[in-house]
Every structure is written in C-alpha cells, then in structure tokens.
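wait is this the right file?? whatever heres the structure
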C-alpha cells in the first residue's frame, strides 16, 4: 500500500511538475538536511500535500507561493551514519576530518541514486516512466566550506555550493544511476572565532591589569633583593666576629 501511494505521488508529480529541485545541506556537525522542492499549481496543491503527508514518514512539509506557482517543500534532517538510505534507491555517505589547530575542516559528501531500484521500489509503471522525460531535475549540494572543483564531479561550483542539472530524467526510463560527489576544505569558522575571542580577552585583560601586575612584580623583586642583601650583610658580620 505504501509503495502504491508513493507511486501515485510520483506520477502526480510527473504530470503536473516540469521541474524538481533537490537541495542538500551537509552540516559541519555531521548531519545532513535534505529538501525536495516541488513546483505545481494551486489546483493540485492540496492533493499533492496530502499524498506527501501520507507517504513520506519523518519528513516535514510546508508551502510557499510565487505568483500562480505553488512550491511544496519536503524536508528532513538525518545522520548519514544512522540513516544512509533516506529514499529508495538513494545511498548517502558523509565523511569529516576536523583539526583543532590549525582549525581546518575536510569534508566529503557522496550520494548515489539508482533510478531503476527507485522505480522498482515504488512500482512505477511504463506510462509513468515515459512521462519522466518531461522532468528536469536540479541537484544543489551546500557544504560547510568551499568546494574543491578538482575533487568534485560537478561542473558548476560556486564557493561552497555544487550544482547539477539533469534534463529528460527518464531517458532511458528506469535505467539511470546518478552519482554526486563533493569535497570541501576550509577554516572552521566557529572554532576560529572562539580562538580570536580568547585572544582578545587575554589582550584586553593584559591591557587592563598589566599596570597592577607589573607593580606587584616590581615590589616582589625589590623585596627579594632586600632580603638577599640583608642575608649577605649578616654573613659578613659573622665572619668579622
């Protein structure tokens, strides 16, 4: 029953939507936020939202409007180490290497989507598979730091964002396997900000308390010098006696 409902959802999406956007946010803390944006019209909005609620458990849903176009947002936050398959046919991996000093982070996110397994899991029929040729899929992955183009398979990299555009999703229907791989490297901004804050506190504290500390150190040094001089004089008197 669940598979059939998801199949009806995808079929409705295919018939009424010419563009689907998948946004992925790889967080520095190891979590991933995935968001599907489905653009449709007001007539199909209610039915589409209802099918999504009944089909995708654990995903939050809301809407926004841009003129006559309604955007249905489907969003979920998960840990790839605990949930590596957020959707049928999709496998997600997220690796991080975090250094304390220097505060540098290395991140690698990879995602594979086997459409044939997805189509089989949701029981897509041949007419539905054929209709997929009308769909344009846009995949956007946002990383915690700047993306390294030479270590990513995206041809559209801007800062910490990598993008893919797939036209005619269903050619050949049910036989496509997509791979998205992104590597990023950069400063751990929160940790660097903490280091800067600590340094500023030390500098400000030193500026405020330095005169007092310097005076106390001077008094202490003078006291030690006087004691040493007194002990020397006593030793000299003992020798004369």
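ok assuming it is, sequence goes like this
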């Amino acid at each position: 029953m669940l598979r059939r409902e998801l199949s009806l959802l995808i079929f409705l999406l295919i018939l009424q939507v010419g563009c689907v956007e998948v946004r992925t946010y790889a967080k520095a803390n190891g979590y991933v936020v995935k968001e599907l944006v489905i653009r449709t019209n007001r007539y199909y909005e209610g039915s589409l939202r209802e099918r999504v609620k009944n089909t995708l458990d654990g995903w939050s849903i809301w809407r926004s409007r841009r003129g006559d176009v309604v955007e249905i947002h489907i969003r979920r936050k998960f840990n790839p180490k605990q949930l590596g398959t957020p959707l049928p046919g999709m496998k997600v991996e997220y690796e991080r290497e975090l250094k304390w000093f220097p505060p540098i982070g290395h991140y690698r996110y990879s995602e594979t989507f086997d459409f044939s397994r997805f189509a089989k899991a949701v029981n897509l029929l041949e007419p539905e598979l054929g209709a997929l040729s009308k769909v344009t899929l846009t995949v956007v992955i946002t990383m915690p730091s700047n993306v390294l183009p030479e270590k990513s398979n995206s041809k559209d990299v801007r800062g910490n964002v990598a993008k893919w555009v797939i036209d005619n999703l269903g050619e050949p229907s049910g036989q496509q396997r997509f791979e998205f791989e992104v590597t990023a490297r950069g400063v751990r901004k929160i940790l660097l900000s903490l280091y800067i804050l600590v340094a500023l506190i030390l500098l400000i504290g030193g500026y405020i308390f330095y005169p007092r500390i310097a005076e106390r150190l001077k008094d202490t040094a003078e006291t030690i010098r006087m004691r040493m001089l007194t002990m020397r004089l006593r030793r000299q008197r003992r020798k004369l006696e």
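The chain has a mean pLDDT of 78. so i think its the right one actually
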